[in-house]
Design brief:
Length: 255
């Protein structure tokens, strides 16, 4: 009975999400937003103003942006999954994982979506209404690996990215510390890259907290994606050091 009620609740939520077309045009949706009847969620998706903010609503909005095939076979991942779990600003493009049979990873940019073809274990995804979303732990690992990210889509432990990331973390200020002397100590990445990497680390820390995973568990999840043929103990140690530094930072998370 509980599962049935939950399913009906999610179905009711999906029916209160709107995109331009039937029954409302884009202009009508904007007008209803101005009147306080709707609120903008992501891209051209609007929700009834009375719906509570939360992961279920964000998952429903992202699901509304998928085509029929991706609704059946895709899993929201990367920055999109992080947004579903944590909130904050909606990403401009929907990141979707399509489970592949090959260990080789490939990504395809198409329309509103970026598709990532790679193996996905059943335990790495969870249903959230009609949508499938990578778990908080898997999402943290994907962000570390550069899967489903818009800027700087490389694993954060690889040189020169690893050296930049380590210095960025060392100078990533705690909430109580003044925001001074930070940029002077970076290895001269561009401002957009710096901001993107900082946001990734902040999201990774928040997702680890959300999942209850410690740096060891997260390092295992990362390496299971990056090294499928053998256990790379040296690389795991680098990953673990970075994740330990990450969770030691005390910047507030976005909900």
């Amino acid at each position: 009975m509980g599962a049935s009620n939950s399913t009906k609740r999610y179905e009711h939520l999906q029916q209160r999400i709107y995109r331009a077309g039937y029954p409302f045009t884009a202009g009508e949706l904007v007008a209803m937003q101005a009147e306080g009847l709707l609120r903008h969620v992501a891209q051209d998706v609007y929700a009834e103003a009375g719906l509570p903010e939360g992961p279920a609503l964000r998952a429903a909005a992202a699901y509304a942006l998928l085509n029929r095939r991706l609704r059946e076979s895709g899993t929201l991942c990367g920055e999109t999954a992080a947004w579903v779990h944590l909130g904050g600003q909606a990403p401009q493009r929907v990141q979707v994982m399509v489970s592949g049979t090959s260990a080789a990873q490939r990504a395809v940019l198409t329309g509103r979506w970026r598709l990532h073809y790679l193996p996905l274990q059943a335990a790495d995804a969870e249903p959230m209404g009609a949508a499938a979303v990578t778990t908080a732990l898997r999402t943290a690992a994907d962000l570390f690996c550069g899967i489903g990210v818009t800027h700087f889509p490389r694993a954060l432990d690889r040189a020169p990215a690893w050296q930049r990331t380590e210095k960025l973390l060392l100078h990533w200020p705690a909430a109580r510390d003044p925001l001074q002397g930070r940029d002077e100590d970076l290895c001269a990445p561009g401002p957009q890259e710096t901001q993107a990497v900082q946001q990734r680390w902040q999201s990774i820390a928040a997702l680890m907290d959300c999942s209850g995973a410690d740096p060891d568990e997260t390092a295992d999840a990362v390496l299971s994606i990056l090294s499928r043929t053998r256990w790379d103990s040296a690389r795991r140690q680098r990953i673990l050091e970075l994740l330990t530094q990450c969770v030691s930072r005390r910047l507030p998370t976005v909900r």
